[in-house]
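hey so i finaly got around to running the thing on PBDC1 protein from Casuarius casuarius. pasting the sequence first so u can double check i didnt mess up the copy paste, my clipboard has been acting weird all day
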Amino acid sequence: PNVEMMWAMKAYQHAEVYFNLISSVDPKFLNLTKVDDQIYGEFRKTFSDLKIDVLDPEELKSEPAKEKWRPFCMQFEGVVEDFNYGTLLRLDCSKDYTEENTIFGE
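ok and heres what it spat out for the 3d tokens, dont ask me to read them lol
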């Protein structure tokens, strides 16, 4: 529980920074890592049917989903710092981070 709480706190801090960035800069000109294009390409190969504007928690947290997410994340070990940390996701990208609109993905 303590490790998950520390992940959640770090994820919240990252979410604040990233939300401020994407709110102040046109996202098409924003790179968060040096390998954003590679990550997105691999993401789209692995999750080609995943709707990303409004997320379904079941598509992120179910056992079949975890079987796909884990290998996806592991390919970035040594490439992306904190590649396997949890992250806060807005379920509906058109809304702010709120308790009802946020899920912790790990």
